[in-house]
Amino acid sequence: MTPRKRRRPLQGTVADELMFRNRHTCCICHDSSKHVQIHHMDENPSNNRIENLAVLCLDCHSRVTSDQGLGRRFTAEELRRYKREWESLNVSALESESALGEVEAAVLRGGISQLMVQAITLLDTARRIEALEQIEAYYIYLGMREEALDAITTILYGSVWGDASVTAECAERIHHLFWALPGPEHIAIRDKDLADLKKAIGRLDWIGEHATEYMRSVQVMRSLCTSILYLYDVVVAYSKSDLGLALLEVVDNALSACAAQTEFEGVWKEGVMEIQQALDTLTETTPKRWTKARTTIKALLATAAEVAGR
Question: How many domains does the chain have?
C-alpha cells in the first residue's frame, strides 16, 4: 500500500486569504448559507499552497471526493476551473466598487512606489514579502494592476541574483493581478487587459531564463509554473491562442535554461519535473482546435523527458 501523506497544519494567514477570495462561500454552488470546508485539490494534505486549496460546502465536497453511487464526481480540472472563475468574479466585484478620483489615484501610486523602494532596500526577506503583499492588496482593492505589475517587476529585477524566496513570490504574484478575468460570459476582456497580459508574460519569460541561470531554485520554478498555468486558463477562457503560444514559449525557454545547466543537476531534475507536471495539465486544458499549441506541448514533453533522463 502507498503510505498516506501526512497532513500539515494550515496556516491561519493562508486560510484567511482563501476564505476572503471566496467570500467564505463554496466555489461550486455559491450558496453562502452553507457551512464550508477547505479541500486539497491534488488530494495531498501536505500541499497547503493556496492554489491547491478550494472552498467547498459539505454537499459539494462529498461530490468531489466520493466514489459511491452512479453519479460522476467532479474531476480535478473541473474543480480548478470552478475555483478560478469564482475567485475571479469576487475580485472583479471588488474592482467595480473601487472607483478612484485622479487625486486619490496619485496618492496611492505614491504609496506603491514607497513600498517598492522599501522592498528593494530592505535586507529582511520577510519584510520584502510583506511589502509585496501590500502592493498586491492595492491591486485587489483598488484595481491598480499596471502600477502593481511595474512595482513587482522592479522588485524582481533587484532580487533575482540573490533572494530566491522573493523572486518566487514575485513570480507567483504576477498571476494574482489577473484574478479579475473570470471569462467572457462574465466580463469582456479589454485592450488594456491584453496589453497587461503581454507584459506579464514577458516578465515570466525573464524569470524563466534568468532565475534558472543564476538561482537554480526549484521554489522559483514551481511559482513560475503556477503563474503560467493560471494565465493559460485565462487566455483559453478568452480564446487568445496567440497568448497561449507565448506562454508555451516561456515554458520552452525555461526548459532550455534547465538543459543548459551542468551543475546542480539533482536540483534541476526537480525543476524539470515541475515543468513536466505543468505540461501535463496544459495538455488537458488546451482546446482541441488549438492544434499548434497541442503540437508544441507534445514536443515540449518530449524535450522535458530527455532533459530529466540525461
Answer: 2
Q: Which three cell numbers stand for residue 259?
A: 538543459
C-alpha span between 249 and 240 (Å, rounded): 15
Asked if 279 and 297 touch (Cβ cutoff 8 Å), the reply is: yes
Mean pLDDT within 68-82: 74
Please give the grid coordinates belonging to residue 160. 533575482
For residue 32, give the amino acid letter.
S
User: How many CB atoms are located within 10 Å of the residue 199 CB?
Assistant: 15
Q: Is residue 134 part of a domain?
A: yes
**Residue 84, domain member (yes or no):** no
**CA distance linking residue 139 with residue 126, whole number of Å:** 20
Among the three residues 22, 39, 74, which one is the final residue of a domain in this structure? 74
- pLDDT of 130-166, one tens digit each? 777 777 777 766 677 888 888 888 877 776 566 788 8
**Residue range 31-56, pLDDT digits in tens:** 988 999 999 888 888 888 888 889 99
